[in-house]
Amino acid sequence: MGLLSIIRKIKKKEKEMRILMVGLDNSGKTTIVLKINGEDTSVISPTLGFNIKTITYQKKKKTKPHIPFIGDKQFFNAVVNLMAVDSSDLRRLDDCKMELDNLLKEERLSGASLLILANKQDIKGALSPKEIAKVLNLEAMDKTRVTRHWRIVGCSAYTGEGLLEGFDWFVQDIASRIYVLD
Amino acid sequence: MADEEDALSSNPNEAPNHSEESRQRKHAALLERLANRHQTRLENSLTRRSADSDSSSSSPSFESTSSFLSRFADSKRSIESRIAQCRLTPTSESTQLKSNLDSISASISDLEKLVAENSYFLPSYEVRSLLKAISDLKQSLESLSSELVPKKKFIFKNKAAKKEKAPIFDSMKEKEPETDKPAKVGFTVPESPGFRNKTGEVLVREFKGSEIGEFTISDLDSCEVRLIGCVRALFAHRLRNCRIFGGPVSASILIEGAEDCVFVIASHQIRIHHVKASDFYLRVRSRPIIEDTTNVRFAPYCLSYEGIDEDLKSAGLNEETGNWAHVDDFGWLRAVQSPNWSILPENDRIGLIKISDPNKGAEKI
């Protein structure tokens, strides 16, 4: 019985998840991270390389590697991928789709849930999450045999709208998938 | 104490202690769970093995690249021939067609799994090319299925069952025409407001009172662009020999591809990609960045029009931050000054630019 209690204790400590956030430049990744952490978003310079942040969510702790360029092969064994999309940059949605397809092929991320943040919804003329899902052809993901939990959420890092909704979703999703052991 | 020990060692079923009983129950449940899991694992491996032996007589582990490659080529050929067959003899029976397609897709996934299982001994180049071949197969299967399977516009029932994971998009899927090639969805994005494909013109846009969030200027040659008022985002692509005078942009400006241009712009964030031989007069709240850019020069913002002060204030850009001189070159990571950009010498700078009446030209003061 001693061993069991030790294992239980370790499991409790383990409620930390790694989140990988990627997206094209100018899609607002740093802003999203800072906004959700409650930091000042008014003087953000474009990021070179990557940031790592730890976020506490309802008494749960998370580390958040945050990588600005998808080209970097610095993938971690993340349980969640966040992909930030600039909903107002219509021209580069194709690039975005290409990069997403590459990301989905990445073996080390094959079991991870995917949350797509359709950012910049506050800008007039931005595409809605539904339209973005169409452009990125997200339904095709369900046709493949490897099932992946995914969701797209419209948000605005500028106003903070929709961010919590997205984070709530993946915390619930991961909690139901991984921490099922009581 | 002695009682408990007795119970543990001799006859656990007759343990008198209450907590002991519940512990026993838990233990039994645990054992059962483990047994179940073991059983399913066994079954899985059995089915996998039988599937492998169905498709070919050789064992699933090869340990030799050439034999594996030849096996892979065989399976690939057979799948290709099945796809071709489906294409040549279209059956009117939709259920039969569907089962055909399903079985082809299943065998493609089996192939993929096979590659994954054996990837530990294959050279990485081979793995990559095999995966490429598999994705090609998938692509051709998808195009085939989109050709053969008619539109499934009005089938609601099995969709509801299938789409549990993303229920928000049920309605979308019905709208999407399935005859489109799956790789390139025929969804045209609406164009954002902007100036496009112009040569030798003076283009003026006044944003005051309009509800424009983003603005695009692209494919301009020898033009002068005047943007009066405040927008949220500005995109500029493929400009040649242009002069861009812009009011404050409250979110970000993305410039990609410009040559021999003059930009007078203000923004929260400015990103400059693939620009040659251009001058920038900036006011920017964070550090501007350049990438794949050569021979650009920077100077402070020098634009004025009626009411620019209020616009700058509302965009949070009324203060000169001095960041126009703190350019980050993402293609130059050394500590020394990047050769790609420089500060524009003061006597080369243009004076204060005043843009006012759209009918009059920009005038120097």
From TrEMBL, chain A:
Amino acids binding GTP: G23, L24, D25, N26, S27, G28, K29, T30, N119, K120, Q121, D122
InterPro entries xref list: ARL2/3, P-loop_NTPase, Small_GTPase_ARF/SAR
Domain of life: Eukaryota
One function term, GO molecular function aspect: GTPase activity
Binding site for Mg(2+): T30, T47
Entry keyword set: GTP-binding, Magnesium, Metal-binding, Nucleotide-binding
Protein name stated in the entry: Putative ADP-ribosylation factor
Species of origin: Morus notabilis
Taxonomic placement: Eukaryota, Viridiplantae, Streptophyta, Embryophyta, Tracheophyta
TrEMBL record, chain B:
Domain of life: Eukaryota
GO biological process entries: post-chaperonin tubulin folding pathway; tubulin complex assembly
Domain C-CAP/cofactor C-like: 182-332
Molecular-function annotations in GO: tubulin binding
Pfam families assigned to the protein according to its UniProt record, in alphabetical order: TBCC, TBCC_N
InterPro entries linked to this entry: C-CAP_CF_C-like, CAP/MinC_C, CARP_motif, TBCC, TBCC_N, TBCC_N_sf, Tubulin-bd_cofactor_C_dom
SMART domains found in the cross-reference section: CARP
Cellular component terms (Gene Ontology): cytoplasm
Biased composition range(s): Low complexity: 45-67
Subcellular location: Cytoplasm
Coiled coil: none
Region (Disordered): 1-67
UniProt keyword annotations, A-Z: Acetylation, Chaperone, Cytoplasm
Family: Belongs to the TBCC family.
The protein's assembly and partners: Supercomplex made of cofactors A to E. Cofactors A and D function by capturing and stabilizing tubulin in a quasi-native conformation. Cofactor E binds to the cofactor D-tubulin complex; interaction with cofactor C then causes the release of tubulin polypeptides that are committed to the native state.
Protein name from the UniProt record: Tubulin-specific chaperone C
Species: Morus notabilis
